[in-house]
Amino acid sequence: MRKLKITELNRLTAKEFEQANKTPLVVVLDNVRSLHNVGSVFRTCDAFLVEEIHLCGITSTPPHAEIHKTALGAEHTMQWKYFEDAIQSVEMLKKDGYVIYAAEQAEGSTNLYDMRIPGGQKIALVFGNEVKGVQQKIIDQCDACIEIPQYGTKHSLNVSVSAGIIIWEIFKQLRHGLER
I need a labelling partner for 49 at 20 to 30 A (CA). Which of 11, 27, 43, 128 fits? Predict the structure, then answer.
């Protein structure tokens, strides 16, 4: 086994990425304060051909050196919009036919392991503040909450880690649905 060189990875160019068939998924960041988390989410979204990122409230926007540090250029390839409040983003997405999920521990939340997305659905995922999570007023507007099962002593994961786990699972299900 040999580690591949970066030139052997056959990644898309920025132009090819722009024209690529995107996963019908929008990621909404609700008051995420860490610029490193924001950059990490940009990079994850780029990796899985996410349509767009909505940056809301206190969530910083590119260009910013601290976002770039973890995004590594994904802030230039990913489409993004800024909203003063995540409620504006969620309302717009609902009007556009997206099913809205919050990544949150809530009454009646769906365990990620049990989640099944029908092919052809457009999905929006809301991720919240590192301390307070997704605002209740946003959860009230969501179709459901997704919960990542955890078995240790901590009750939560870092927001960019949660985003990576859930985006990967949604990507697998939506891309499989697209390829049918």
Answer: 128
